[in-house]
Amino acid sequence: MKKQMSIFSMALTSLLAVAVMAGCGTGNQSGAGQAPAQQPAGQEQAQPSGEKKTLTMATSADYKPYEFHDLTSGKDEIAGFDVDIAKYIGQELGYEVQITDMNFDGLIPALQTNRADFVMAGMTPTPERQKNVDFSDIYYDAKNTIVSKKDSNLTKPEQLAGKKVAVQLGSIQESAAKELAKTATGLQITSLNKVGEIIEEVKTGRVDAAIIEDTVAKGFVESNPGLQYTTIESEEANGSAIAFPKGSAHVDEFNKVIKKMKENGEMDKLIKKWFGQ
Q: What is the SS3 assignment for 245?
């Protein structure tokens, strides 16, 4: 009896050993029952070949027709002259362009802190700005205007002496107003973030006038019949250029596409589309 029990125990032990080995073997089957391998922290997965690189464009989308929030499709989309140029350049160079909206005075700091690859916002490459960022070639020339109420009789720079004048914070128009204040005695400057806010200040009489770029002023005056705008004649250029972080490798390749757009008629096509010229 003991012998039989011993033989039975040995058989059972062998059976269990085979079962355990078989169970361990399933762990080596190709993927069967295994959790997917996890990506090591900080290691990026390889991108599919042919996928577009992404560039971040910073802008201040309150500057129609350069850039503005377009709600006509039922969605809030940033559109405009600058946006069309950026998309064309991106397509030519194989980049996906991602747009970030912010206040105008935050655009150059965004480049300096690598939060944007380039800026398009109707920006003029002044000597002061050129100390902090690099610029492309000029892609569009514009002029400053005085925006005021129709009955105000404020149409010339010298008539702004002793008046409150609104401008966009950090803009070329703010610099122009400060320069004008040297000769127009008593001119008081009010700097605001958004052009829409500036127009409201003029309409309500909290300021007497505003200095705004001509193409932008035209759009606001057309939708506000009580306002007028007059061009400020100046020999200085107020052209728009694309801003980049200092030393950016994108300046040359962007310039090549801007040159191509001017030569193949694409720039004229967009100017006609957005400015009616």
A: strand
Residue type, 261: M
pTM of the predicted protein model: 0.66
Query: d(Cα 22, Cα 19) in Å, to the nearest integer?
Result: 5
Torsion 182-188-193-195 (CA) sign: negative
Give the Cα separation of 158 and 99 in Å (integer).
Answer: 39
Cα distance between residue 131 and residue 246, in whole Å? 9
* Cα–Cα distance for residue pair 124/241, rounded to 1 Å: 6
Torsion on CA atoms 208, 214, 216, 217, rounded to nearest 10:
30
83-125 confidence digits (pLDDT tens): 999 999 999 999 999 999 999 999 999 999 999 999 999 999 9
| CB-based contact 145:230 (threshold 8 Å) | yes
User: Would you say 267 and 139 are in contact if contact means Cβ atoms under 8 Å apart?
Assistant: yes
How does pLDDT run across 252-273, given as a tens digit for each residue? 999 999 999 999 999 999 998 9
